[in-house]
Amino acid sequence: MDISTHFGLKKAPFMEAVDSEACLASPVHREALATLRYTIRDHKACAMVIGGCGMGKTLVGRLASKSCQNRRPVLWVHGLAQSDNSLAVTVLAGSRGKAKGDTSPQPSTLAEWCAEYPQRSPAPVVIVDEADELTTAHWTEFIALLAQDMRFTGQMTLILLGTPKLRDRLASPQFARLRRRVFRICSLRPMTVEESLEYVGIRVANAGGDAKQLFETEALEKIARLTRGNPSLINVLCDNTLIEAYGADRTRVTLDDVRSAVEAMIGITHTHTGAHVLSAPEDVTLALPMSATEPETTQPVTEPVVEPATEPVSQPEESITFERRLAAMRSRLERTLAAVRDVSQHVDEATGISAATVHAIDVADTDQSETPDEILAAAG
Question: Cα(20)–Cα(206) distance, rounded to whole angstroms?
Answer without folding.
Answer: 9
